[in-house]
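Summary of Year 1 activities. Much of the first year was spent building the evaluation harness for sequence design. The harness presents a backbone, in tokenized form, and records the residue chosen at every position. We chose the following record to illustrate the format because it has been used consistently in internal testing since the harness was completed.
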């Protein structure tokens, strides 16, 4: 099956991928759903909404600082690096991620669309001006204020009920519609609009490849499904493509 996917890649020029928390699971970043998922232990409405931030900014910052600390200690895994390498086999390859952990950047992927923001960045909760003073450590008891409007500084991630960063979702849909092969990797495909991207790609004629140890809403429509970890199968795919190139 993996040979068939490699063969398709050789014959197309545009590819795209949507990643979710599962791609970073092998780096030690917890996913959201499933047995060990964050949303099994924490209530999203108390931590990942603007209402929660207005009601209890200290608690929200404590939670984000805990996740930030956790993410600062992890490294990209074989799946992230293989996706970086996979880009070389296309004329146009866009990596769309729902993750906020920065690991695709650290791995060196060339064209990344972050749909849900980035946990390393901060912005004003009121006017959205980026807060870029890296010397300021955000302490939950002393949350800095925006130098333009005085609003409280918050993490630059998308919370439930919020719009996605302007331009990002539009470009992601464009790439999904124009891709010839689309990979859905490590996502439960439950959170829209991101979860619509693989469907849009498939409806627009792309070959849909899913990599996920668990069955998802998308599994039934995938042309190829690999029920295993991304860090296991993606390096094998890249290896096949490399061998093929070497053998001319
Ligand atoms: P989920 O936690 O919903 O799903 C993670 C998926 O990864 C599951 O389907 C797992 O089976 C799969 N998985 C686990 N280990 C894997 C591995 N090694 N290789 C491949 N797949 C693996 O995470 P997302 O789909 O990313 O939104 O969640 C989507 C959004 O919901 C997140 O971006 C976040 C959350 O609420 C916001 O914060 C806005």
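For this record, the design step produced the sequence shown next.
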């Amino acid at each position: 099956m993996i040979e068939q996917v490699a063969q398709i890649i050789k014959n197309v020029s545009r590819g795209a991928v949507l990643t979710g928390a599962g791609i970073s699971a092998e780096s030690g970043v917890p996913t959201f759903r499933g047995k060990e998922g964050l949303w099994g232990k924490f209530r999203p409405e108390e931590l990942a909404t603007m209402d929660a931030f207005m009601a209890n900014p200290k608690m929200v910052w404590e939670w984000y600082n805990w996740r930030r600390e956790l993410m600062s200690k992890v490294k990209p895994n074989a799946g992230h690096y293989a996706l970086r390498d996979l880009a070389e086999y296309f004329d146009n390859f866009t990596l769309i991620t729902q993750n906020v952990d920065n690991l695709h950047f650290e791995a060196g992927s060339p064209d990344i669309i972050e749909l849900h923001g980035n946990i390393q960045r901060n912005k004003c909760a009121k006017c959205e001006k980026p807060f870029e003073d890296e010397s300021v450590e955000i302490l939950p008891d002393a949350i800095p204020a925006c130098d333009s409007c005085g609003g409280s500084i918050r993490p630059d991630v998308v919370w439930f009920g919020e719009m996605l960063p302007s331009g990002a979702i539009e470009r992601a849909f464009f790439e999904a519609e124009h891709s010839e092969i689309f990979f859905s990797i490590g996502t439960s495909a439950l959170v829209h609009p991101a979860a619509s991207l693989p469907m849009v790609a498939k409806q627009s004629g792309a070959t849909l490849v899913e990599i996920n140890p668990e069955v998802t809403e998308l599994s039934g429509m995938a042309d190829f499904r690999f029920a295993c970890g991304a860090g296991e199968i993606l390096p094998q795919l890249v290896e096949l493509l490399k061998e093929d190139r070497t053998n001319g």
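Residues 98 and 194 are 7 Å apart (CA to CA). Quantitative recovery figures across the full test set are reported in Table 2.
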